[in-house]
Amino acid sequence: MGIVSVAYTTHAVFPTVVAEMKDVKEFPKALEISFGVVTLFYLLAGAGFYIYGKATDPQITFNLPERMQYVVSYAIIITICLKFALMINPVVLFVEKTCRNNGRLVSLLCIDPKSPEGTPIKPVRIVLVASCVLAALLIPYIALIHSVVGVFWSTFVCVVLPCVLALQLRNWLPIQYAAIWGLLGLSTVMMFTGLYQNILQIKSCYDGTNAYENMCN
């Protein structure tokens, strides 16, 4: 539940989506389309699991023909690499801007003060990427920890908080009030359910009961 909630909601707070749009006013429309596409994908996944779930392996790629397994595996790896670059780019730009505004860091990192604002600062980028790799390798159960943090903040920021603010902004029709309250209640239940499941997974990994062996590795 936690990972599903993160995957379903985080595209709404993807930093580069708004920053790189030609017309920021079109963001709500883009958000509606993205939610619709993701909902369709999850409905298809749910239908597939309902029909074939018991006959599939835990890692569904093993059910594909051998050649397709390699294609899908490489596609997943490429997607992860591209997504990492897109997600870390706003962080890198913010850190680089901060470094340019700090005189001591400019001299320490050998930054040319006359260089344009968007010029990459290689030491900053190397340190950020290396720190992410080391964190993934050294911190135990980092996937579950990210899921715990992500399910709370992504669901809260993208669903719960907008519903709370919407109730305060204007007078709604009764059916609209019902829809907002329904979405607020459902998202709150999903958020705490995801948190509870992830905490149980971390406890299981820590105790060595291996109830969630695939998440503990």
Automatic annotation (TrEMBL):
GO terms for molecular function: L-amino acid transmembrane transporter activity. The keyword Transmembrane helix applies. The keyword Flavoprotein does not apply. It is found in: Membrane. Pfam families: Aa_trans. One of its GO terms (cellular component) is vacuolar membrane. Residues 2-197 form the Amino acid transporter transmembrane domain. Keywords: Amino-acid transport, Membrane, Transmembrane, Transmembrane helix, Transport. It comes from the Eukaryota. The chain crosses the membrane at residues 30-52, 72-95, 124-144, 150-167, 179-196. It is a multi-pass membrane protein. This is Amino acid transporter transmembrane domain-containing protein. The lineage of its organism: Eukaryota, Sar, Rhizaria, Cercozoa, Chlorarachniophyceae.
